[in-house]
Design a protein that fits this description.
about 400 residues, alpha+beta, Butyryl-Coa Dehydrogenase, subunit A, domain 1, Butyryl-CoA Dehydrogenase, subunit A, domain 2, Butyryl-CoA Dehydrogenase, subunit A, domain 3, 3 domains, four-stranded mixed sheet, four-stranded antiparallel sheet, globular
Length: about 400
């Protein structure tokens, strides 16, 4: 008597639940697939060891440039000019590996390159952007200070005019890429009010300018994070970003970067949810898979529902961004919503895996540690809550 082979239960992926792939263009799907292959073949095999040793693999920088991920959604000057959705999908795939790797892409693209692209002179754009797009020049973005994070209007870094030069003094903190940056976009005040804030391009090796490590990081370990110090740094007028006037200039850069951060964390969330589902199907307890337990299925179903909502929101906001209609308050909502989802997904996955969840083998606690940072940088959850609250009520509560 023959016995019919046992068939594995049918499963539905997060992408299937969202049914969002048909809503993307062929070019967008191509960017997604190409980035996914690179991440899985080149990055995933070594990311655990890099995280454990607190290092960023600089060998990836040129590869990211060849893939067209640096300056990806900028137009001209050697930049690919892909859609915001395509860029968001690339960030998603990169962050499925590690938030530190995506942070490199975000800071290079959405902060350093974007600041030059939007506020710089034609000469500055020609000089820096093509090489930055190839990964030949690395950039960082110096806004946050040791005593001023969420309140950049009161930054202490000053710039004073001295003849045909500017003299900058101050310090910046929590700067991604600081230690390897060839150029740093540094913001400083030329007077006593936020309207006097201006931006400069500071090249590595400029006298009085230095980058320093931040020791003992427990998050974003596979990423360069440092501080910048400026002691009587003299810069010519040609180093200033002439169109970057007032606090609105650096905030516009941050608003641009938040989109990639918010889209990117969906990759970390997806990885953790899928890893928890896989583990629950393979792990046998009390004679049955963990997946057979209601207390396991319930949190997975909740996370899947929230991921689908966040994915469709991100796709819609990406279309609005390309149409020039995405508002800063909407970006705040997206960043707040997606970062909280991702952190909850990583923490829940760790919990469902029990003790195994704390090991590097399963990666979810590494993601959780990183996502503690994404919840904070580019605007804390509390600040974005108040931005949304002000938009709803018309009353500021900062």
């Amino acid at each position: 008597m023959s016995v019919a082979p046992t068939q594995a239960p049918r499963t539905t992926s997060l992408d299937d639940f969202a049914a969002w792939l048909p809503l993307m263009t062929e070019d967008e799907l191509a960017v997604r697939d190409t980035t996914r292959r690179f991440v899985r073949q080149a990055c995933m095999p070594r990311i655990r060891e890099d995280f454990e040793h607190g290092r960023f693999h600089t060998g990836w920088i040129g590869d990211l440039g060849k893939l067209g991920l640096l300056g990806a959604n900028l137009q001209g000057y050697g930049c690919p000019g892909i859609s915001s959705v395509a860029y968001g999908l690339a960030c998603l795939e990169v962050e499925a590996c590690d938030s530190g790797l995506r942070s490199f892409v975000s800071v290079q693209t959405s902060l350093a390159m974007y600041a030059i692209w939007r506020f710089g002179t034609e000469e500055q754009k020609i000089k820096y952007l093509p090489k930055m797009a190839k990964g030949e020049i690395v950039g960082c973005f110096g806004l946050t200070e040791p005593n001023f994070g969420s309140d950049p209007a009161n930054m202490a870094t000053k710039a004073a005019r001295d003849g045909d030069q500017w003299v900058l003094n101050g310090s910046k903190m929590w700067i991604t890429n600081a230690q390897i940056a060839d150029v740093s976009i540094v913001w400083a005040r030329t007077g006593g009010d936020p309207g006097s804030i201006r931006g400069w391009i500071v090249e590595k090796g400029t006298p009085g300018f230095a980058a320093h490590d931040i020791p003992h990081k427990l998050s974003m370990r596979a990423s360069f994070t440092g501080s910048l110090s400026l002691q009587d740094v003299r810069l010519p007028e040609s180093a200033r970003l002439p169109l970057g006037e007032g606090l609105k200039a650096p905030l516009a850069c941050l608003d641009n970067a938040r989109f990639g951060v918010a889209f990117g964390v969906l990759g970390a969330a997806q990885f953790c949810i899928e890893r928890a589902v896989e583990y629950s199907r393979d792990r046998i307890q009390f004679g049955v898979p963990l997946a057979a337990k209601q207390l396991v299925q319930a949190p997975l179903a909740e996370l899947a529902s929230r991921w689908v909502q966040a994915a469709l929101l991100s796709l819609h906001y990406g279309r609005l961004k390309d149409a020039g209609k995405l508002q800063p308050t909407q970006v705040s909502l997206m960043k707040r919503n997606n970062c909280r989802l991702a952190l909850d997904a990583a923490r829940t996955a760790r919990e469902l895996m029990g003790a195994n969840g704390i090991t590097g083998e399963y990666d979810v606690l590494r993601h959780a540690n990183n996502l503690e940072s994404t919840l904070t940088y580019e605007g804390t959850e509390q600040i974005h809550t108040l931005v949304i609250g002000r938009a709803l009520t018309g009353v500021a509560a900062f």
